[in-house]
Design a protein that fits this description.
Layout: E1 18-22, H1 27-38, E2 42-47, H2 50-62, E3 69-72, H3 78-92, E4 97-100, H4 115-143, E5 146-151, H5 164-184, E6 189-196, H6 202-207, H7 211-220, H8 229-240, E7 251-254
Parallel strand pairs: 1-2, 1-4, 2-3, 4-5, 5-6, 6-7
Helix pairs in contact: 1-8, 3-4, 4-5
Bound molecules: nicotinamide-adenine-dinucleotide (NAD).
Amino acid sequence: MTDRTSAFATYPSLEGQHAFVSGGASGLGREFVSQLAGQGSRVSFVDLDEASGRSLVAEIVERGDPEPVFSVVDVRNVPALVAAIDDAADRFGPVTVLVNNAANDSRHAVAEVDVELWDERMAVNIRHHFFAAQAVAPGMRKAGHGSIINLGSISAHIDLTDLPIYIAAKAGVEGLTRTLARELGGDGIRVNCVIPGWIMTQRQLTMWVGDAEREHIYRMQALPELLYPADVARMVLWLAAEDSRLCTGQTWVVDGGWE
Ligand SMILES: NC(=O)c1ccc[n+]([C@@H]2O[C@H](COP(=O)([O-])OP(=O)(O)OC[C@H]3O[C@@H](n4cnc5c(N)ncnc54)[C@H](O)[C@@H]3O)[C@@H](O)[C@H]2O)c1
C-alpha cells in the first residue's frame, strides 16, 4: 500500500516568510517550527526549555533547512516577549506568520485556586496571545499581509474537570481570535484559532495517556486513530499560507471527530 502520509502539501507562499512561534521547543510547537522551516520559512521561536530549543535548531540545520533563531523567553514576561519579536524582525524582517502556542495545562482543583494562580495561568494561557499580536501587527500592516494563528483547545468544548483557569483562558482565545480578526482585517491580517483534540505529545503520553485513555479516545473519536502533532501542524501550515487567504475569524478543529 502507498504511504499516503508522504504526499502532504508544500506551500510555495511560505518560502522566505518570517514565522514566529511561542512555546516552540517541544510538543506541538516543536512540530510547527520544524514544519514551517521545512517549507522554507525563516522561523524564530521562544521557549523556557533551552536544551530542547537548541536540539531543535540543530536538527533543522542538520537536515539543510533554514536555521531558526531560538531564544529563552518566558511568555509571561510581556516586555521580554515583545523584545524577542522585535529582535527576530531585525534579523529576518517583519513577522508575517505568528503562532501563539505556548500554554500550561497543569491540573488545578477549584478549591486550590487563589488570585496569584489565576493571574499566572491567564498570563501563560491567553495574555501573551494578545501582546504578541499587538507587537507583530505594525510589521504585518507594512508587509500588506499576515496570518496569526492562536491555539485554542477542545477542553473548552467538552466536560473536563481540574482545569478551570486553563479552560476559561482557552475559551477566551476563541473570542480574542474573533475580535482581532475584525480589528486587523482591514490591514490584510488574518487571525484564526486552531482547536486541537487530544494530541499525543510526549507530555501527554508521559503524564496522562495509558491503555484506558487510549480506549476512551477510540470510543470518543469518529476516527479511531491517535492524533499526533504533525496532524495539527498541517492545519497550521494551511492557515499560514496564502491558500487560506480569505479565511479569518474562524476556529479550525483537528480532533478526529470527538463526540
Ligand atoms: N496536546 C494536546 O492534546 C492539546 C490539546 C488541546 C490544545 N492544545 C494546545 O496546543 C498548544 C501546544 O500544546 P502542547 O500539548 O504541545 O503543550 P506542551 O506543554 O507539550 O508544550 C508547551 C510548550 O510551551 C512551553 N512553555 C510553557 N510555558 C511557557 C512559558 N511561560 N514561556 C515560554 N514557553 C513556555 C513549554 O516549555 C513547551 O515547550 C497549547 O496551546 C495547548 O493548550 C494541546
